[in-house]
Amino acid sequence: DVQLVESGGGSVQAGGSLRLSCTASGLTRYDSDMGWYRQAPGRDCDLVATIASDGITKYYGTSVEGRFTISRADSGSTVHLQMDSLRPEDTGLYHCTTSIRLVPYWGQGTQVTVS
């Protein structure tokens, strides 16, 4: 089974930084796009950032562009999200996602709280 495990969340003051990581397992190759979504209470799930299998093509949501950086490592099985200049509105449960042959997979999420 494909599994995505996130780590790196926590509590930080506004203006601070956090680095999230997501490790995928259960595949022989890690050549699918990967991304991060966040879910805040009472709000729709927001797409934060995605990164293609080439590790070069990236997309950022408008609210995080210029502050967050997505990257891949470990032959594509790990994706990082460097979050700088954090704001209270960045608070939420951050999920790592990927899609394998049109089947979506989500991790359990890691909580980020900015005060």
Quickly list its features.
115 residues, mainly beta, seven-stranded mixed beta sheet, four-stranded antiparallel beta sheet, 11 strands
Tell me the radius of gyration.
Answer: 13 Å
Distance between the terminal alpha carbons, to the nearest Å?
37 Å
Classify the oligomer. single chain
Number of beta strands? 11
Largest sheet: 7 strands, mixed
What can you tell me about this protein's structure?
This protein has 115 residues and is mainly β. It is built from no helices and 11 strands. The strands form 2 sheets. Strands 2, 4, 5, 6, 9, 10 and 11 form a 7-stranded mixed beta sheet that branches. Strands 1-3-8-7 form a 4-stranded antiparallel beta sheet, with no helix packed on it.
Condensed summary:
It contains no helices and eleven strands. It has 115 residues and is an all-beta fold.
SSE arrangement:
Blueprint: E1 3-7, E2 10-12, E3 18-25, E4 34-39, E5 46-51, E6 58-60, E7 68-73, E8 78-83, E9 92-100, E10 103-106, E11 110-114
Parallel strand pairs: 2-11
Antiparallel strand pairs: 1-3, 3-8, 4-5, 4-9, 5-6, 7-8, 9-10, 9-11
